[in-house]
Design brief:
The chain is mainly alpha-helical and about 210 residues long. About 50% of the residues lie in helices and about 5% in strands. It has one domain: hpI Integrase, Chain A. It is globular and about 60 Å long.
Length: about 210
């Protein structure tokens, strides 16, 4: 049996790339919600429908869930800034089935170790690999931007302090760049772009190239 210091102890662990973006397809979302234990299904659904972080979900109390106004209030977040998240109908149905309860009571009263265990089992049962709980947040953001293309709204929903953090989802919007180019094009003087003078310059350059001057 080997004894002594672990020879691999000094080897630096590889960090996960900061630009990692793993999200579930619609089919995978259905698979994991169908495969997960009933005790964590409401929490997973809430993560997928709000983009809230795990810590925010586990800390959420009924005092910060306003079913009348349809708003979840997040008072403490990673960025340090409070934010509001509208409650969509699918989530409303889930929350109304659970409560409301006493204001101080946790909405998702579950030890993190229990969540980890059941989440891992759900991933295995659904045949999903290379996926972390935080990727549920990416899943929300990715599907939101693919549907709406609204980066400023997504930034507010996710509570990003900087728009740079939200920009990572921009490429998922099929119409995002087209919209930006249309906005750019609208500010350009169309007549000047294709004026006779410019056409003449182009013709002269072609003539000079053929004659060997260029």
């Amino acid at each position: 049996m080997f004894s002594g210091a672990n020879p691999a102890a000094k080897i630096a662990k590889l960090k996960e790339p900061t630009n990692r973006l793993r999200y579930l397809s619609k089919m995978e979302i259905g698979n994991i919600l169908g495969a997960c234990d009933a005790r964590i299904r409401p929490l997973l659904a809430a993560a997928l429908l709000t983009g809230m972080r795990r810590g925010e979900l586990l800390a959420l109390t009924w005092a910060n869930v306003d079913l009348t106004q349809g708003i979840i209030y997040i008072t403490q977040s990673k960025s340090g800034m409070p934010r509001e998240i509208p409650i969509v109908q699918n989530l409303r149905d889930i929350l109304e089935g659970m409560g409301p309860q006493e204001p101080a009571a946790k909405v998702f009263d579950m030890p993190i170790i229990t969540l980890r265990r059941y989440f891992g089992k759900a991933l295995s049962a659904a045949g999903i690999s290379g996926f972390h709980f935080h990727d549920l947040r990416h899943t929300f953001a990715s599907h939101f931007i693919m549907k709406t293309g609204n980066l400023p709204a997504l930034q507010k929903l996710l509570g990003h302090a900087s728009p740079i953090m939200t920009q990572r989802y921009a490429h998922l919007s099929s119409g995002y760049l087209q919209d930006e180019m249309r906005a750019f094009n609208s500010c350009m003087p169309a007549g000047a772009v294709v004026s006779p003078e410019i056409r003449a310059i182009g013709h002269n350059l072609d003539t000079m190239a053929v004659s060997g001057v260029l």
